[in-house]
Design brief:
The protein has helices at residues 2-5, 32-45, 48-54, 76-88, and strands spanning 55-65, 70-75, 92-106, 111-125, 128-141, 150-158. By secondary structure, the protein is α+β, with helices and mostly antiparallel strands. It has a six-stranded mixed sheet with strand order 2-1-6-5-4-3.
Length: 160
Amino acid sequence: MLLIFGSCNPFAPGLDENLDLGSSIVGDATTIDGVFQNIKYAYTFRDTTIYGQLLNSDFAFVYRDYDRGVEVTWGRDEDMQTTRGLFQNVQRLDLVWNNIISLSTDSVSKQASVSRNFNLTVTFNPSDIIRVDGYATLALARTGVQQSWRIVRWRDESNF
């Protein structure tokens, strides 16, 4: 029996030689689709490092406060603090990006604008779940064709 299992350690399985090392769940931020993939990744894994890499230094988040009847804007630092708090205080975030409603790019100015529908499910605990549906309009910029897109402005047009 010792001879059969002597060369095999069930607690240290061998390396999977068929693993595709070229694939990644983190998107290529030099593409617009990669930016959205990385937002989804950041929310799914509650990863502020990936999320922060997506935001430009002059980033602005804009939303409508329907209770007060005003538009609210905050900058990158406040957004990072808010997002960090969200990530730390939930059990799960499920973000689904749906169809792109509009997309415009300007290769000369290296800017893009994307409006996209989303569904976000925020699970604080099994009895406290919030569902948010809406649209996000992102203004993106980059310094060159081979450079990553950064979010300059995120307008949230959700029902929350």
